[in-house]
Design brief:
The structure holds two protein chains of two kinds. By secondary structure, chain A is mainly α. Helix content of chain A is 71%, strand content 0%. The N terminus of chain A is likely disordered. Chain B is mainly alpha-helical. In chain B, 75% of the residues lie in helices and 0% in strands. The chains are: A mainly alpha, B mainly alpha. At the A-B interface, α8, α9, α13, α14 and α15 of A face α1, α7, α8, α10 and α11 of B.
Chain lengths: 330, 335
């Protein structure tokens, strides 16, 4: 739970003391609490109330989370209410039906019912995004820390690699990979393909953050008191970076969803499982656009727009926690 | 800007292109069990009657013909040599057209659309974003920006789908697809240019609508930071005119990170534009890529991917160089 951590942990690379005060509104107590070696967390009750209090001041975060919750409920309730796996297959209904009482979102040319397709496809978009975002951010964090903390040759190699790979449009390379291993591509493999080109941005930004944090006084104190490099990384740097990492994670998820949707819209997605992008692809392939079959692409479009809006709002909300300087920017 | 910097930047560009082509060469060969020649022969043997032993013999003959029986490093250098000469072999779906000719026909369309839409979105977004932080900006701006911010979270091609449905199908104002009426020959006459502009209006609009908010958002953030700077207070204390402070002091400083952001997001923009083309069946590189993917035309896919990488690389290079020419603080003494 990212949210609850934020009111105990010093927030990000900005000014820790001012941050903590802003977040838990407790004044200097917060700062003293943090410097305490035992790191006692505040009482759970006050923690919850400060979280709620903070959430009221960050409406974008709340709105984004609520939209995500709505999409999850759509999947949970939908998959309980009907047999989505059977009814999302081709030939499960008559072809080209407009939305009606029987087929709520209509059917496509292959006879798939589009409501169950949508219910099946929504969690897949989450899955690809979360998996690819997580793997990409993990690689980026490890490389970013190695490059930023240890510097030297490792920094030159990692930085050089990230710099040369970054200007290469990911979709172009993904197209080459996905078109060569097209046979039985699954959602998981697709997520890994997307992740393989999603680590450069996190590597660079995290490296930059580590570089500035490495010289901070509290790191110096830890070093002087004999902490090893790993202890400093895990005890001092990582906790301080966690709000920043959470914000990067959300944007990594967004980028991964965008990349996977792009691949799917080109027809390079999983063939046997319904996904949002593949539904768009089939609707283009069968000319649904020209035939006026709005219900075919309309559902995926709404879900994708909601998903991206939610991720955008959450990223903006988390950014505000991680980077207090832009607090009044938007 | 020193010559040394330019040389180093160009070398980085060459390095990027070399890395990318190497990735394109090696990645498919790492994937296990995919053998295009045998697959294709198998596909053909389904329709005709071919002996199983003959297929193996034919496959070996083709491998020798394409040099696939050579060691990997020989193939790799041959591949690099072909690419340097812009030789991408023949297209499998539109045999015997050469891949380079197909791309040559499609490229002007993509470059034209992409350039127009990006320049429009970037300047419009930057201006609107900057203005929105200005106290004397028109009131209407505060109603215009939120929808643009919302659009910026949506992929270009989804907006494209919506625009086609609304303005080509429901209200037939614009053509549904294509880059020009079928049967017209490309020419540099004003009439032809106008039809092209008319056909490109919706694809361009879907990109501009989606991207303007992104640039406005970035510029707004930068302007807010800039307004707290000492030189802004100084400029106002000197009694300079409002627009002068806004343009010469505020915008001039805040626009620099926007150019960096443009260089960094070029890959995204190009990928998005390729997908928009598919929606509108615009005769550019994106539609060609779509056809190549649905037609299993690996030579064309590789050629397009190479051109996209080189194109983005060149654009990034130009932006980086212009950034260093624009920023008065960078002199490039040593770095």
């Amino acid at each position: 739970m990212v949210l609850r951590e934020t009111d105990v942990l010093p927030t990000g690379p900005g000014t820790p003391t001012a941050d903590a005060r802003l977040v838990d509104g407790a004044g200097p107590d917060g700062a003293i609490d943090r410097d305490d070696q035992s790191g006692r967390p505040p009482l759970p009750a006050s923690r919850l109330s400060t979280t709620l209090h903070y959430l009221r001041r960050n409406p974008r975060l709340v709105a984004g989370l609520l939209i995500l919750l709505g999409l999850l409920l759509f999947w949970l309730i939908g998959s309980r209410a009907m047999d989505t796996t059977a009814r999302s297959r081709p030939l499960s209904g008559p072809p080209d039906m407009e939305p009606s009482a029987e087929y709520l979102l209509g059917t496509d040319t292959a006879g798939r019912e589009l409501l169950p397709v949508l219910i099946e496809a929504t969690p897949r978009a989450f899955e690809v995004g979360l998996l690819a975002g997580f793997v990409g951010l993990m690689i980026g964090t490890v490389l970013g820390f190695v490059a930023g903390y240890f510097g030297g040759t490792a920094d030159t190699i990692i930085g050089g690699l990230a710099d040369t790979l970054l200007p290469i449009p990911a979709l172009a390379v993904l197209v080459v990979i996905a078109s060569t291993i097209k046979t039985n591509l699954t959602v998981e493999i697709m997520a890994l393909i997307v992740a393989s080109l999603a680590w450069m941005t996190p590597t660079r930004t995290i490296r930059a953050q580590v570089l500035t944090m490495r010289e901070r006084a509290y790191v110096e104190v830890a070093r002087l008191s004999g902490a090893s490099s790993l202890q400093i990384i895990f005890r001092e740097l990582l906790p301080n970076l966690s709000p920043y990492l959470a914000a990067s994670f959300v944007s990594a998820v967004g980028a991964a969803v965008l990349a996977s949707l792009g691949l799917e819209a080109l027809g390079l997605g999983p063939q046997n499982e319904p996904t949002l992008g593949m539904t768009i692809f089939w609707s283009i392939y069968y000319g649904a656009l020209l035939r006026g079959m709005w219900w075919w692409w309309g559902g995926p479009l709404v879900v994708i727009v909601l998903l991206f809006t939610a991720l955008f709002l959450i990223a903006a909300g988390l950014d505000e926690i991680a980077n207090p300087r832009i607090r009044r920017a938007v | 800007m020193t010559p040394g910097y330019v040389v180093r930047r160009v070398l980085l560009f060459v390095l990027v292109v070399w890395m990318a082509t190497s990735v394109i060469f090696f990645l498919p060969r790492l994937a296990p069990g995919r053998d295009p020649i045998r697959e294709r022969l198998m596909m053909m043997s389904v329709s005709g009657s071919v002996m199983q032993s003959a297929i193996e013999e034919m496959a070996r003959a083709y491998e020798a013909r394409f040099g696939l029986d050579q060691p990997l490093y020989v193939q790799y250098f041959r591949f690099l040599g072909d690419i340097v000469q812009l030789d991408f072999n023949v297209s499998l779906m539109m045999y015997p057209s050469r891949v380079i000719d197909l791309i040559g026909q499609a490229l002007p369309w993509t470059v034209g659309l992409l350039l127009t839409a990006t320049v429009l979105a970037f300047s419009l977004g930057t201006l609107l974003g900057g203005l929105s932080t200005w106290p004397r900006a028109p009131r209407a701006l505060s109603y215009l920006l939120p929808p643009l911010f919302a659009f910026s979270a949506v992929p270009y091609y989804l907006l494209g789908i919506l625009l086609v449905y609304l303005f080509a199908l429901k209200l037939p104002i614009f053509p549904i697809s294509g880059g020009a009426p079928t049967g017209t020959l490309p020419s540099f006459t004003i009439g032809y240019m106008l039809t092209v502009a008319y056909h490109s209006a919706l694809p361009a609009l879907s990109m501009v609508l989606a991207a303007t908010g992104f640039w406005a958002l970035g510029m707004r953030g930068m302007m807010v930071t800039t307004q707290g700077e000492d030189f802004m207070i100084m400029a106002e204390a000197k009694g300079l005119k409002g627009w002068r402070v806004f343009l010469h002091y505020g915008m001039r400083t805040a626009i620099l990170p926007q150019i960096t952001a443009l260089a960094l997001s070029l890959g995204h923009i190009v990928s998005g534009a390729l997908l928009v083309e598919i929606i509108f069946q615009y005769p550019g590189v994106g539609t060609l890529l779509y056809k190549a993917i649905t037609g299993f035309d690996f030579f064309t896919i590789n050629g397009i991917v190479f051109f996209v990488i080189v194109g983005v690389g060149i654009a990034t290079l130009l932006l980086d160089l212009s950034y260093h020419a624009l920023d008065p603080r960078i002199k490039h003494a040593r770095t």
